[in-house]
Amino acid sequence: MRGLEGRVVLVTGAASGIGRATAERLVDERARVALVDRDAERLGDVARTLAEDGGQVGAYRADVARADEVQAAVDGAVRELGGLHGVVTSAGVFDPSDMAPIGEADPAVFARVLGVNLTGTFLVVRAALPHLTRHGGSIVTVASTAAIRGHGFGAAYTASKGGVVALTRLLALQYAAQGVRANCVCPGFVATAMNREALDDPQFMQGVQKSVPLGRIAQAGELAGVICHLLSDDASYTTGQVLAVDGGATAR
């Protein structure tokens, strides 16, 4: 992909799932990668693995729901890796208790999920923007197809991801004149640790696969490919877009 080599990209949620797959793809494209996650142990393991593979990486432990930790991670990445040209906000949570109907939803769960998924996205973007406007850059947020169509469950998750979509569109409009592009990827069901319980339920998985025109669920690397395309110069005229990467599920 054009334009990724040598650029510094910060990836949240980098210790697992879509975030880790994106970091791995960026290393393959010879970008310099700032890995951010709240799980320090797994983050260190990923950083060591990527460095052993020849990657130029830095690891920064941070909870994206905490503004001070986010700012410290961004400052560290800029100082140690030499700037900032792109951001991927893939840190996210889903609380199983969020499956309750809205009328029975726990306000504490709602606030906690929004704190990571939506406020966390805002805090990372806010901290990164002074650097992105200096160089021109690209932001790729990660939402969910839950933001495009109600899945019938997950008030907190659905609301948080819908907010990410709206925030991304606003970013694209506000910062286009300063050379910053912002796009949102909305995954369908992906084989990640977050979905481990569902992955272990054959009956549930059969239903999921039947709902997907391509007949299978996504692998994290397939999302990483789309994210890296949007970060690259190959997508230089793409901004303000919301792209469902879901095997065609939302086309029904």
Notable traits:
252 residues, alpha/beta, Rossmann fold, 7-stranded parallel β-sheet, two-stranded parallel ribbon, 9 strands, globular
Describe this structure in words.
The chain is of the alpha/beta class and 252 residues long. It has one domain: Rossmann fold (3-Layer(aba) Sandwich), CATH 3.40.50.720. It has helices at 17-28, 40-52, 67-81, 107-135, 155-175, 196-199, 202-210, 220-231, and strands spanning 8-12, 32-37, 56-61, 86-89, 137-142, 180-187, 190-191, 218-219, 242-245. The strands form 2 sheets. It has a 7-stranded parallel β-sheet with strand order 3-2-1-4-5-6-9, sandwiched between helices. The protein has a two-stranded parallel sheet with strand order 7-8. The radius of gyration is 17 Å and the shape is globular. The protein starts with 7 loop residues before the first strand and ends in a 7-residue tail after the last strand.
